[in-house]
Every structure is written in structure tokens, then in C-alpha cells.
Write a structure and sequence with these properties.
mainly alpha, 20 helices, globular, transmembrane, Na/Ala_symport, transport, cell membrane, transmembrane helix
Length: 436
């Protein structure tokens, strides 16, 4: 009953409504000023101790996930080829939400007792709205989410993949994944950022190249497929399939395997991941957040969709099985290995990124509820334990609880965005002025 209340149909409209509001408020900034924000992000890297590029890669580690493989197939199954068009529209709307929550996080961030930046929706709620209790509630939900969908569910995805594809024993996989996670997270945000700055481009790049390989083989079908996407976008079910596919896909990335309607743009986690960037400002980091949503959905998800549509699916297949079938049909057995390997790599990257999110939230709770107590290492131990349990346990209940907590995170974040909307500033500088 509680799950139905939290994830009723109004939730999807709340996400999309928030994005539409900020799209109108900005005058369609994410579309009209694409050359400007592209130049400010991809075309210009930060020089701080934790650069904007490294921070963006850390955020992409959380956003590029198994949903790029599973969620797209779900969208196509639910709404047909026309769903891809609405997948793009939903992503464009979500870019405005991502900008708003990330720029607000930068506006209100502060140095914690340990000298590190404390940033995220909980800080905006405390310092922008003057409602610390709301921030504490959000932080608590985020900690629970990190231990569930951020670690256990993702670790389970890695474990299942290695067990079936490589024949590894569950206990060995658990020890390996836990050890690799520990080796990265004990180094803090700098090691996480350094790992993400080469790990994410490499893994996404490999998936990108092999997707292009498949499309090159099927290049004669691409024009017809693109025309089909546009024509069928206006058929009944296409919009619902595309929107649901986008929202669903961005949650499967966090391990929510069924019945989920949520996305990264709206949860507030992007603001947390961008908090560590040095020598930057709200507008710059907001534009990086827009780029992440764009790259994740309009690039990676689009490639997956085109592969499926150009190759042609198989009756009865959905999700990862459908995507794997299409790659295997062109690349042979290597195609199935590629899809499985990509899912494992993407899931591990999500584990690393969600550790940082959860640790920041735990630090915020400790700062206000147990001032002076040095208990942050407790979270690291709990997180590593969750990773290990995720590899060896069945997670039906964890999926359900994570789904619920995910929704409980979104509501206070979206409410704070509406209440602080007047403080969201979009760049007004014209491209021509920049070129001068």
C-alpha cells in the first residue's frame, strides 16, 4: 500500500512537471544554448584539485549503468520505435531539473569540519529553506538508498554476471568485488574521481565503439529506422513507453529491477557528486550536470535503441536478453560477452559513485546528530558489508525497500526545488559575447 502511494502515477508527472517548469523558466536553455554549454563543459576542463571533468566522470559513473542496456529495451517493448522519440524529449526535460538541483547545491555548499565540501539537497534545505529537519530526513533516506540500490543491488548484478558468464563461484566474486571497492573508496573522493576519470570514459567508449560497429554493419537500415521513430512517435502508447522507459532506465542503473518510475535528475544525487569540484560555480556545474543527462540518454541510450531497431529483436525477449541477442546476432558470441561485461562494469562504477553519495550523507547526519564524534569509518564498513551481502544473497526484499526509499528521497528534493526556484539562475550570456 505504501509503495503504491509513493509511486503512484502522479509521481511521474511531478518529475516531468518540475523539468518543464525549469525549462520554461530558462527559456529552453538546454536546447537554445547547446553550443554555449557544450563549449563550457566538454570544451573546457577545470583546473582544481578535483577538476570539473573528474567530477563529471564521477557523476557519469552513477548515471551510465545497466539502465542504458535494460531500460532502453523496456521502452521499445512498451511503446515501440516511437518511444525513442519521447525518450529524447524526457531527457531534454530532465536536463533542466539536473541543472537546477546541481546549481542550488553549489550555491549553498560549505566546508565541513574536515575541510571537505558538504553539498547536496540537504544543504539547500537547511541553508536555503531554513529547514534542517527536512535536510536530515533526506540524508537518512539517501544513506539507506546507498546501502540498498547503490551497493547491494549493483553488487548483485556484478555477481550474477560473473557467475553466469565466467563461471566464478559466488564467494570468490563477493571477495573480489568487495576488495576492489575497498581499494577505491578508502582513498576518498580524490581516488574515486581519478578512477572515474579514466574508468568511465574507457568503459563507455568501448560500448560506444562496438555499438557503432554494429550500426556500421546495419547502416542501410538507419535512415528507415530514424524515420520510423519519428512517424511512430505519435501513435498511442509511444509517449508513455518512451517516458516510462527513460524514467525506468535511470533507476535500473541503481539496481531497481522492476516497476520503477524515477530518474537521477530529480533525486538530488547529481548535486552531491558535483560538490567536490574546486574553483567553480553554480552555473558551470549545472551545465556539467546537463551534459551528463544528455550523454547518458541522448547518446548511450540512443545507440542501444538503434542497435535493437536496426538488427531486429526476437519474440519473447526483453531487457538485457533482447540487447544481448542483437549484439550477438552481428558480433557472434562476443556480442553477448560485451553486453554482460558492460553491465558488470557499469554496475561496479555505480557502486563507487554511490559510496561517495552515501558517505556525504552519513557525514551530514553525524555532523548534526553526533557533533565531534569520529564515526564516518562506520559507514565505510557498513557499505563494504552491503557490497559483500549483495553478492551472496537474494535481494527481492532489498529491491522493494530500495524502490520505496528512492521515492521518499525524490519528494523532499523536488519540493525544495519548487520552493527555491527563484534562486536558480541560468546563464544569460549570449554565445556571440563569449566568442568576442
Amino acid at each position: 500500500m505504501l509503495h503504491e502511494i509513493v509511486w503512484g502515477p502522479w509521481t511521474m508527472f511531478l518529475f516531468l512537471g518540475t523539468g518543464l517548469f525549469f525549462t520554461v523558466k530558462s527559456g529552453g536553455f538546454q536546447i537554445r544554448k547547446l553550443p554555449y554549454w557544450w563549449k563550457k563543459t566538454v570544451g573546457s576542463l577545470g583546473n582544481g584539485s578535483v577538476s570539473s571533468f573528474q567530477t563529471s566522470c564521477t557523476a557519469l559513473a552513477a548515471t551510465i549503468g545497466t539502465g542504458n542496456i535494460v531500460g532502453v529495451a523496456t521502452a521499445l517493448t512498451a511503446g515501440g520505435p516511437g518511444a525513442v522519440f519521447w525518450l529524447w524529449i524526457s531527457a531534454l526535460i530532465g536536463m533542466a531539473t539536473a541543472y537546477a538541483e546541481t546549481s542550488l547545491g553549489q550555491k549553498y555548499r560549505y566546508r565541513g569540519p574536515d575541510g571537505a565540501w558538504q553539498c547536496g539537497p540537504m544543504v539547500s534545505m537547511e541553508r536555503g529553506l531554513g529547514c534542517r529537519s527536512m535536510g536530515l530526513i533526506y540524508a537518512l533516506f539517501a544513506v539507506l538508498a546507498s546501502l540498498g540500490m547503490g551497493s547491494m543491488v549493483q553488487a548483485n548484478a556484478v555477481s550474477e554476471t560473473l557467475r553466469y558468464e565466467a563461471g566464478m563461484k559466488t564467494e570468490i566474486v563477493a571477495a573480489l568485488v568487495t576488495a576492489l571497492t575497498a581499494a577505491v573508496v578508502w582513498g576518498g573522493i580524490r581516488r574515486i574521481s581519478r578512477m572515474a576519470s579514466w574508468f568511465v570514459p574507457l568503459s563507455a567508449g568501448i560500448y560506444f565503439l562496438f555499438s557503432v560497429w554494429v550500426l556500421a554493419v546495419c547502416r542501410r537500415r538507419i535512415p528507415a529506422v530514424l524515420l520510423q521513430i519519428v512517424k511512430e512517435a505519435w501513435t498511442p502508447g509511444a509517449a508513455g513507453g518512451g517516458i516510462a522507459g527513460f524514467l525506468f532506465s535511470r533507476n535500473v542503473r541503481f539496481g531497481l529491477a522492476r516497476g520503477v518510475f524515477s530518474n537521477e535528475a530529480g533525486l538530488g544525487t547529481l548535486a552531491v557528486l558535483h560538490g567536490a569540484a574546486e574553483d567553480t560555480g553554480p552555473e558551470e556545474q549545472g551545465m556539467w550536470a546537463m551534459f551528463e543527462v544528455f550523454f547518458d540518454t541522448n547518446v548511450i541510450c540512443t545507440l542501444t535503441a538503434l542497435v535493437i531497431l536496426c538488427v531486429g529483436g526476437a519474440p519473447g525477449l526483453d531487457g538485457a536478453a533482447l540487447t544481448s541477442f542483437c549484439f550477438t546476432k552481428i558480433l557472434g558470441s562476443f556480442g553477448g560477452i560485451l553486453v554482460s561485461g558492460s553491465m558488470a562494469v557499469f554496475a561496479f562504477a555505480t557502486i563507487i559513485a554511490w559510496y561517495y553519495i552515501g558517505r556525504q550523507m552519513f557525514s551530514y547526519l553525524a555532523e548534526h546528530l553526533c557533533p565531534g564524534a569520529d564515526i564516518e569509518y562506520l559507514y565505510t564498513v557498513l557499505y563494504l558489508l552491503a557490497v559483500w551481502l549483495g553478492c551472496v544473497c537474494r535481494l527481492e526484499l532489498v529491491w522493494i525497500v530500495s524502490d520505496l526509499v528512492n521515492g521518499l528521497m525524490a519528494y523532499p528534493n523536488l519540493l525544495s526545488l519548487w520552493l527555491l526556484a527563484e534562486h536558480v539562475r541560468f546563464p544569460r550570456t549570449e554565445i556571440a559575447d563569449e566568442e568576442k
